[in-house]
Amino acid sequence: MGYSVCMSQATVCFLIKGGDILLARKKRKIAEGLWNGYGGFREESDDSLEETAIREMEEEIGVSAKIENLEKIAIISYTNKKEDGRLRDIEVHFYLVRHWVGTPRSSEEMYDPRWFSIKTLPFDEMMPSDSVWLSRALQGKKIKGAIVHNEKKEVVLSDMQEVSVF
């Protein structure tokens, strides 16, 4: 039995205010019910990753930002094994956003937006792989790596390194 692999690119943005980070619960897909940042897949091949990030923030949280307000903190390649055995490879570009316009709100994709202290993130209610890299990135480190999840969303392999530039 062979595996089919789907490769795609996505973005996730974390709004930051002082020492707090805005997270919301996902309504569907791999992180359903878990706290997460805002983002999604690159839909138009002409869109840059930054344009994708801005579009997704507007759709999922109702705020807008300029490209120069996006600070890239990580590039993580994920391999997720689905329950049917298929693999899904996704390269996710993560950004911090400190300046935006609008008031964060719930949407069709995300609900219950809530501010958390960066020092006490709810890792037990986030994707398990977030605990591998996110705290380091929030301390100012740039992270590049790869993570493999099994069908239960557990991390079975991770390889992270700090980089100076992307």
Output the CATH topology: Nucleoside Triphosphate Pyrophosphohydrolase
Q: Tell me, rounded to a whole number, the average pLDDT.
A: 91
Query: What is the CATH top level name?
Result: Alpha Beta
Question: Which stretches are poorly predicted, pLDDT < 50 over at least 5 residues?
Answer: 1-6
Beta strand %:
35-45%
Query: Percent of residues in helical segments?
Result: 10-25%
| Topology as a string of helices (H) and strands (E) | EEEEHEEEHEE
General shape = globular
Structural class: mainly beta
CATH homologous superfamily placement = Nucleoside Triphosphate Pyrophosphohydrolase
Rg value: 15 Å
Largest β-sheet summary: 9 strands, mixed
> How many separate domains make up the residues?
1
Query: How far is the N terminus from the C terminus?
Result: 37 Å
**CATH architecture type:** Alpha-Beta Complex
In total, how many beta strands? 9
Domain Nudix hydrolase: 6-142
InterPro entries: NUDIX_hydrolase-like_dom_sf (IPR015797), NUDIX_hydrolase_dom (IPR000086)
Cofactor: Mg(2+)
Protein name: 8-oxo-dGTP diphosphatase
Task: Explain this structure.
GO terms for molecular function: 8-oxo-7,8-dihydroguanosine triphosphate pyrophosphatase activity; metal ion binding. This is 8-oxo-dGTP diphosphatase. By secondary structure, the chain is mainly beta. The chain has one domain: Alpha-Beta Complex (Nucleoside Triphosphate Pyrophosphohydrolase), CATH 3.90.79.10. Strands 1, 2, 3, 4, 5, 6, 7, 8 and 9 form a nine-stranded mixed beta sheet that branches.
